[in-house]
Every structure is written in structure tokens, then in C-alpha cells.
Amino acid sequence: MKTLNEMKEAIVLLVGAAEARKLVLEAYNAEVLANRLGRLEVREGHQLAKPKGNLLEKAVVRVYEVVTFLD
Fold it and tell me: How far is Cα 34 from Cα 60, in angstroms, rounded to an integer?
């Protein structure tokens, strides 16, 4: 598995800096939404919900997996 910085560099090389920012921002928003929905579901069950890791890191990994899918 590549490090986070290596994944960021690969994304920028494959799609360019502007598109990389856009893709990571969209993935980050999706991670935030999924995290919030998960918290709502758990809250209805009256359990404490903890954040599920670094959302920005998860977004970068998601984008990296997508842009390198056919490599």
C-alpha cells in the first residue's frame, strides 16, 4: 500500500492538480455525509457514535483507487 503522500502525487500526475482537488473534495463530502448518516442511525439506537477515522485520508484513498482502477 502506498503512503498518503504517494497517493496524492499519483492522483495529481494522472488527472492534474485542479481535477485532483475537485475529486478529493467530492470524495471528502461523500465521506462526511456517510459519517453523519451513520451517526444518525446509531443515535436512534441510543449508542454513542465515534468518528470513523480521518475523513480526508479516506477521501484520498477513495480517489486514488478510482483513478488507478484500470492501471
Answer: 15
Q: Which residues contact 50 (CB under 8 A, 6 or more apart)?
A: none
Angle at 11 (CA atoms; ends 64, 33), nearest 5 degrees = 50
Read off the amino acid at residue 34: A
The Cα 18–Cα 56 span in angstroms is 17
Amino acid occupying residue 22 = K
For residues 44 and 1, which has the higher predicted lDDT (pLDDT)? 1
* In the chain, domain spans: 4-67
Quote the CA–CA distance of 37 and 9 in Å, as a whole number.
Answer: 31
Q: What is the pTM of this model?
A: 0.79
Residues 27-68 pLDDT 10s: 999 999 988 887 776 665 555 555 567 999 999 999 999 999
